[in-house]
# Entry
Amino acid sequence: MSGTRGHRGDARDGSGRVSRRGLLSAVGAAGLTGLGAGGLGGYASAVAVGAAADDGSALASVRARSGPEAGRPPALRTPTPAHVQVLAVDVRGEEAAKVRASAREVLDVWHGEAAALHERGLAAIDEGAPSEGLRPASLGVTVGLGGSLLDRAGLADRRPPHLAELPEFGADDLRPAWCGGDLMLHVGAEDPVVVSSAVEYLLRRAGDRARVRWALPGFQRSPVAAEDHTATPRNLMGSVDGTVNPEPTEPLFDSQVLASHPEGALSWMDGGSYVVVRRIRMLLDDWFALETADREAVIGRRLSDGAPLGGDREDDRPDLAARGDDGEPVIPRRAHIRLASPESTLGARMLRRGFNYDLGWDAEGRRQAGLLFTAWQADPRSGFTAVQTSLDEGADALNDFIRHEGSAVFAVPPVPEDGSGLAGTLL
# Structure
């Protein structure tokens, strides 16, 4: 949730309806299936929603979310979709050859089905689909590979060191059932029914070759409900989430977010991206028991507008050297934004995509809600791990109000130029 702005487009015919010709034009020849040169492991639909006045409204903005951006996976498009579901899938099989064969079959199926989903829509290819009558809603499918898959498939020599397991952190309360996985399936759209039905269909097509290890649905505020649909969204703690993010237009974006493996056994990931997925439960009862000023001190930003303490606007650079009349730092020593800043992490940056989750209450009356956090980077060791280590060493004040309960790292490779699918150059 970076607060970056998406470009506008129009795939309507003269009546204001989304036409097939307009849809194809909006995506373009290479964007239809995501199989063209330089496309990462994902596929994106042409339009989000239709029948909206082209007046700069939230609906018009949502409708304009079309196609992959500059060859990047749908999971990195801006603006981000209102709904996602992230799943980890384990490939069945004991022997390496069987694991490789099953993984290739699953990836090939998803490769072809994702293209069909976005070109024709689920209702057109699956009779009685729950999404009957719904537009594609900016549907985007992104697929990643876990290190466990490479090990099990006898391809440990082709596992990048970037895909190593994460170290233990102070805020970790990890549940094994919510960690790891051979494959990641990341599906996003503006409508939860579109997301759910697409996930169900893709898993059904994978058949008994794979089983779900864990899954978590996430959501953001709906652009239609927002007073300002261009504003940075807020998480369930009420804080703006995603203010400081690398912009795709920045010169350093590619080096910070996209991996470089030009030669040798790791070349299958050259131009791809590594994503860290974390299930972060928020202790909301404890959080909202704090006074507003205390909550702001924990984060280091004003709750009202997201500006760093001592600043005027959300986009202001935090002044970590500023002192108050009492001589203490304006942004407290344990404030989250101080410890996560590039100044504290040797310049570490990653593209953060956070979504809320709310699963209600467990049998003991504890709230099961928080953040489905995804961090995209060229190397998790110098990105996510560097930031999380700084938060640990500085005793991040936010750690008193969150628990990291799930964790996984996946490699999202580029789609080969020959259109052979995600598994073509590896499996």
Q: What stands out?
A: The chain is about 25% helix and 20% strand. The chain has two domains: 20-235, 282-409.
